[in-house]
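Module 6 notes. Inverse folding takes a fixed backbone as the condition and produces residue identities as the prediction. Think of it as a translation problem where the source language is geometry and the target language is the twenty amino acids. Below is one complete input and output pair. Work through it position by position during the lab.
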């Protein structure tokens, strides 16, 4: 019996530690764009909402998203700061999905725009991770965001 225990323990460990890096199920990809409706210094989180031209399990759909993100102070030009956490919600014609923002970064491009990348952990409507990457534009008011959702490896 002991000789079977080690392989089972190793397999369980690999399964548990690999799950956070797995792509989401269902797969969610697409283009998103929206505006900042409340800055972090007012709402204790930067709050955005907007639209999604998405694919859920390779089936096209439209949707609306809402996200609140807590982050370190916006960085000076050509530096980065951390995304510390948050919550997100995506409602599409193919389902409702929500979860936590688990990590990410904001990089100042030096022209009042910021490259943003964040990992979204799916808690409702599926499981796994979706990555969002795009540009936060502070050159006009209200600040806007445009980017894409894709599957992490």
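Target side of the pair, the amino acids:
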């Amino acid at each position: 019996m002991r000789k079977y225990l080690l392989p089972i323990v190793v397999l369980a460990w690999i399964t548990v530690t690999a799950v956070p890096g797995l792509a989401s199920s269902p797969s969610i990809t697409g283009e998103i764009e929206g505006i900042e409706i409340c800055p972090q210094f007012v709402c204790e989180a930067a709050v955005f909402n907007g639209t999604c031209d998405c694919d859920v399990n390779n089936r096209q759909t439209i949707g609306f998203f809402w996200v609140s993100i807590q982050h370190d102070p916006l960085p000076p030009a050509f530096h980065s700061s951390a995304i510390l956490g948050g919550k997100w919600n995506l409602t599409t014609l193919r389902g409702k999905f929500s979860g936590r923002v688990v990590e990410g970064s904001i990089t100042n491009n030096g022209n009042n725009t910021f490259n943003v990348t964040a990992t979204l952990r799916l808690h409702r409507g599926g499981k796994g991770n979706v990555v969002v990457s795009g540009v936060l534009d502070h050159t006009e008011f209200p600040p806007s965001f445009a980017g894409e959702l894709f599957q992490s490896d």
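Reference fact for the lab report: The CA atoms of residues 53 and 62 lie 5 Å apart.
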